[in-house]
Amino acid sequence: MSVTIKDVARMANVSVASVSRALNGHGGVTAETQKRIREVATRLRYVPHNAARSLITRRTQTIGALLPDLHGSFFSELIRGIDLAARARGLYLLVSSSHGDATEAAIALRAMQGRVDGLLVMSPHADEAFLDENLPIVLPTVLINSHVRSERHASLDVDDFGGARAMTEHLLGLGRKRIVFIAGPEVNHDVQERIRGYRDALSTAGFGGRAAVLHGDFTEESGYHAGKQALAMVPRPDAIFAANDMMAIGCLSALAEAKVRTPEDIAVVGFDDIPMARYVSPPLTTVRIRIAELGEAALERLAAMIEAPDDAAPEPHVVSTEIVVRASCGGSDTVRRRA
Amino acid sequence: MSVTIKDVARMANVSVASVSRALNGHGGVTAETQKRIREVATRLRYVPHNAARSLITRRTQTIGALLPDLHGSFFSELIRGIDLAARARGLYLLVSSSHGDATEAAIALRAMQGRVDGLLVMSPHADEAFLDENLPIVLPTVLINSHVRSERHASLDVDDFGGARAMTEHLLGLGRKRIVFIAGPEVNHDVQERIRGYRDALSTAGFGGRAAVLHGDFTEESGYHAGKQALAMVPRPDAIFAANDMMAIGCLSALAEAKVRTPEDIAVVGFDDIPMARYVSPPLTTVRIRIAELGEAALERLAAMIEAPDDAAPEPHVVSTEIVVRASCGGSDTVRRRA
DNA sequence: GCGCGGAACGTAAACGTTTTCATGGGAGCT
DNA sequence: AGCTCCCATGAAAACGTTTACGTTCCGCGC
After folding, report:
1. Which member of B71, B112, B136 has the closest CB to residue A76?
2. Are A11 and A40 in contact (CB under 8 A)?
3. Per the CB < 8 Å rule, is A279 touching B249?
4. CA A15 to CA A18: how far, in whole Å?
5. Per-residue pLDDT tens for B296-328?
6. Quick one: DSSP state of residue B47?
7. What pLDDT is recorded for position A158?
8. What is the mean pLDDT of residues A159-172?
9. Domains of chain A
10. What is the average pLDDT value for chain B, to the nearest integer?
């Protein structure tokens, strides 16, 4: 730790400036001396002191990620994607997750200043006002799935609309005519988009009048209840599209309990492709969100902003989804990707 | 960003030294001037430049986490625990995960030097030689579940042994007499410990001779095959203890296929408590690893090492497990915690 | 032979803090 | 009144880099 650039300079009989130039490949050094300096540096196990470097270069080579209090695989996949892309670019990743309320998030956000070259923000608290309050204007920032449209920050969203539309089209293509949608919490923006996709596919097919939306809250239990409701409908639907997998699974229980066959009588599909979806009976057809890709794209975007801060922000990027066809919809067993 | 301590000093009519003292609460400043300085600082939105600070204090307030290429909830729970504890101590978290091979891990490890005050390492590549090669001696390090016993680093492990023993005792307590264990890959240290716990409970109960271990590879499929094997055994076992939940689930399929009732004829239990365990039929009794607690404990330990580097390393800490009793073992539905 | 340009390298300033040391002044004591 | 001592404050050094600016030296063209 305590071996500095001066030690290297002394051992190599050059000035610190030459060491810096040689190690950073800035030229102005003979190939020969460069080689000598490099050798001395590795022999001494010299590692540049990052703080000193950032102090003068004003770069930390680090990006910060502000994430919500998230359990489960969404979180890990997202970080995976971010981390992968970051490493590829030689960037470090400073994470701060699991902040319960807006105040905590604000503190975390503030504390990151000066530690990072850019910020990835995905937080339920991150509305426009919050960001204005807590973000310095100069810090490049990418908003992930926050549905905030701001001139000042780039954003990146999941294609909930396209995924839901594609899934609805898939069901229609299989000959299903009465498709019921089970929604989640009203305030949830993703849910809104999914409903919109569902309705859009229906009206495009000329079935606009048949749209029927039941309400749930993302839990298995609410899916179970919605399933019961669907069974009671007249005419009975021939397909149920739940806004997430957990509700779809609850729905499956309701159908099984009523001795209704899936998919023969009623097809059931979900959204998210949680790991469990593959193991329920029948295996659940669902819409997969390519979460790692989301993280990766977010980081790429951020890196671009850091390198060329003045570029006009490109149109908001949308991350693709894909339909995973399993047994529960009565189609063939494949994965279909949407661009 | 560009407002420095000098700006604050000028505005408050004091020297930079006083500002530093006031803001860090080092004393030697009148309550009155301190108040004034604080006010100016917040008004100017002054945020200290961390690089400059670390340069002189030789502290980064950051700890690094080197993690394997992990999917799923284990990863996210672990980070959750670490992050929670870190925030509570005002520490930042620099993560580097998803490095495929030892070389990548080594690079990541090296690059963290000078960026962090301490290191949390959980990596399949992190054996003794690797660490000696790539870690500076001075950097406080905590090894998570790596089963490396080193004088130089602290370590923290999951109590696989205790968990397996407790589960076996639980089955014995329910009157099961012929318990078969399905192991995982031989090389896996966790598996070894789980087998040891299983055997230990058996011999303590005087059933040492009845230990029977089948082999799997952690996949659902291998659990299915092991289940078939178990069914073919004479006399037939009355309980199956799988080394992880996925194999237990495969096992359940094998039993269902053979029209063997669970838990009436054969009890089935697993290890890990993956989210799916609750949803299979019957719901799976299993051993839960308190992963977040693992991360939390690791960070606490590391923080202690950083604050008092010369303290003798306490005995290797072991993180508790708990038995989650669901329907598949025929016991009552509770969670029992082990110390 | 002399000046000139450019390459290689060195010197020193600058980055923004913390901290040591010096300085001044006021209070308390004799 | 004068001395001492302490406390608030300021000046300046130090941390380890990068980089602008000089300096030296060599080769080349006149």
Report:
1. B71
2. yes
3. yes
4. 5
5. 999 999 999 998 876 666 677 888 899 999 999
6. -
7. 92
8. 96
9. 5-48 (1.10.260.40), 62-158+292-318 (3.40.50.2300), 160-290+323-337 (3.40.50.2300)
10. 88
